[in-house]
Structures are given as structure tokens and as C-alpha cells.
Amino acid sequence: MKALLLKDLYVIWKQMGIFLVVVLAMSLVNSTFNCVFLVVWCSMLPYTSIAYDGQSHWDQLAAMMPYSKRDIVLSKYVLGWLCMAVMGAICTVMQTVVGRFLSGEATEGGILLISLCLGMISLAITLPAVLRFGVERGRMIFLVVIFGVAALAGIALDATDLRFSLPMPLEALMPAAAVVATAVSIPLSMKLYRVN
Amino acid sequence: MNAIELSHIHKSLGGFAIQDLSLTVPSGTICGLVGENGAGKSTTIRLMMNALTPDSGTARVLGVDAASPEFREVKEDVGVVLDEAYYPETLTAVQVGRVMAETYRRWDQKRYEDFLDRFQLPGKKRFKDFSRGMKMKLSIAVALSHQPRLLVLDEATSGLDPIVRDEVLEIFNEFTREEDHSILISSHILSDLEKLCDYIAFLHQGRLLFCDEKDRLLETYGVFAGTAEQLESLQREAVVGREASGFGGVRALVRREEVPAGLELERASVEDIILFMVKGARK
Questions:
Q1: Rounded to an integer, what distance in angstroms lies between the CA atom of residue A65 and that of residue A133?
Q2: Is B124 in CB contact (< 8 Å) with chain A?
Q3: Among A166-170, B36-40, B239-243, whose mean pLDDT is lowest?
Q4: How confident is the model at residue A30 (pLDDT cuts 50, 70, 90)?
Q5: Which end of chain B is more exposed for a tag (fewer CB within 10 A), N or C?
Q6: Of B205, B225, B254, which one is at a domain's C-terminal end?
Q7: Where does a domain end: B174, B205, B236?
């Protein structure tokens, strides 16, 4: 799987350059939205890699190499998680340092956790369809899910009163939801994955 | 041991089907897979490598069933070059080497770098800026750098200029000097196959028409050149395929054993045999 992750990181490296500039710019403004947006955006990076794979027909070559289907599918999840974790770390550092310096506020740890969970959930929901149909055809599902997740996140996080009406704190509910969604999504992706 | 054994494979793909394909490539030999575009060569390779699941039949490579979990290990021993080099376009040759070093346990970085030098491939140029010939050379370099015992080459020499093609064919020849090394190569360049192969397998519309030793094929068939009347005088079974050759003449692929002993025949090349057989099959 290390080989596949390395390949994907090389593929998205160019994207990351632009991404870091956006992150730096957005980090100057401390807001919940920025943190959620950046981390959830990172969950999209596996789709960039899948798009490049599709464009070059890499999957046909990969099928001839000693990679298991499990490695191929899991590597896309791990790539998403890695990118989100790195972005979460960058976001925290930038918003803590720059945010404190400019506005005297820092991003709450809970917001970051919720952002990571949202990214994991959106990845878990969309990846099976994208692995099955490719990025082009999976895009519609992807857009609907991302907008849905972002809208719900905005409502849930801005309306802080919501936290008190939930059966458990959002900080506990979201990780549980992320774990369940991922646990269902990975076997589904394994079943749906095919060489396009 | 056989390097490749395909047994009664069927696979339907929309309007096309591989039908009852049985093919054996003995270890230590080079087998050329010939056929028109769409004959099923690439599909056969995908079935053989378990990239496609057959509807029925079995494929064994280096003694292991391609459908078994152990087959993943076998892929360490198989170097594959497909009809296009399917590496992501943003990668460079150096990055491809690093990825392959993590892919194959017996990756030989020195050998890979030697091939990059030998093929004059730039290490830091992006793959999308490579010419088709350069892309194929990179694929060949990768396929040969993890100490494979079997090379599976799908149109691996297409897009190469004649000088490099000759050099690559020599590399393939060198590869089979090890007695357990084998090659399955599909190509449209029949002269390459004639130069390289011990066996020729001919696929036509998803069916294997024959798989035979090249030398035996060349001994079995000859090309008759003469008049239509002379050709008509031969036994019907002797003539495999025919074509008009201008000025009322005719050329035909005939079975040497079934024509009169004194009849003068030209030597048939692999290309003659295949072309006449395709024409014969169309009639």
C-alpha cells in the first residue's frame, strides 16, 4: 500500500502547492467555516488521484502488479485520512498562531475534531460510488453529498444550541458516526471496486 | 513446467467473446500472440493476469492458478508491458522508480537506472511530455527491473524506432537465456515475432486458430506463385488461402505435404501464413 500512497502523493503534489496557498490565505481569517471547509476539501483529494488514475488507465496496469484489491481500495481512504490529518494540523497551527496574533482567538479543538469527522463521513459516503463509476459519473453523487454535508455542518455548528438537544455531545456523536460510516463504506468499496 | 496454461477459457464482453481458449507456453520459450485488432490479444493477457475473471475455464501462470490468492505472489515474477504505458502523467521516471521500489520486493534500482541510461530516458521529465517510444521504453525498463521470470508484452515494440526496436528485441532474447525465463509477446509487427519467437499463437475473432512451433509452421507451409489454372490443379485441402497477384497470376499459401513433390514453392514467412489464414477464414 505504501507504493500506492507514494504514487498518489506524487500525483496530488501539484494540487497541494495551490492548496497550501489557499490554506495560508484562509488561515488569516479565523472562522469555524474555514476549518471545516479546508478539512472537508482535503477529503476530496483522493478523487483527484482517482481522476488521474482514470485518465492514465493506471488501474489497468495496477491490476497486473502485485497489489491486492484491498490495497488499492484502502489506499484511497488512507490518502484522504492523511490529507485531512495534515490539513487539520496545519489549520490548527495557523489558526492558533495567526488567529491569536490577529484576533486574540484560537480555533477550538472540538471544531477540528468535528471537521475531521465530517471529512471522513463524506469520504465514506462518496468513495464507493466513485470507485465503482469513476470520478466523472461519481461526480454528481459526490457534489450532492459534499453540499449536503457542508450545509448540515454549517447549520449544526453555527446553531450551537443544537448541541444541547442531541442525545450526546456533537464531539462524541461525530466520531461515532465517522467510524460507523467508514466501517460500512470500506467493505462496500471492496465489493464495488472494479477496473474501469 | 509450463509458464502459461490457459484451459478452455470463455469470456463474453458485450458483442465480443473469447471462446474456448486453450494455450500453453512452455517454460524457457518465447510465444508470439498474433491477431487482428480486436481479436482478443489484450483480453487474453488480462484474463491470464486475473485482471479479468473468465466466465469459465482456468488460467495458470508459473504453475499457480490465476484465480487463487497465491497469485498475487506470482505477479512479483511477471514483468508486464501493456499496449500503452499507463503511468500517471504527472510522474517522472525517477518517481516511477521509487513507486516500483515499494511495489516489487526484488526491485533492482541499479538495473532500472542502467535501463534509463541505456534508453536515454530523462529522470526528471514528466511522463506526459514523453514521446510514445519513450513511454514504452520506460515500461520495458520497469518490467525488466524486478527480476521477473515471465515477461508479458502487449504491443511492447510498437512506437519504437527500428534501431531501438532491434535493441529491445535483443534484450528480450538475452532475457530468455536463463532457462526458466519465458515471454508472451503480442505484436502487429510480425517480422519481430519471426525473429524472436519459438512459438506462434494466432487468435482470430476470439478463437485460437493455432499455436505451434514457429519452425514447424515455416516447414509446414509454402507460398505458391503461378497461374490460377495451376492452382486449381492442386488438391483443395492443400490451399489455405489465395490472392490475385496481378497480370492474371495468383499467390497462395499451401501445405507442403499436400502438393506434388516437384512443385516449386517460395518460403512462407510468418506474415504470409497469418495473412493468408485471415483471408482464408474470411471466405
A1: 22
A2: no
A3: A166-170
A4: low
A5: C
A6: B205
A7: B205
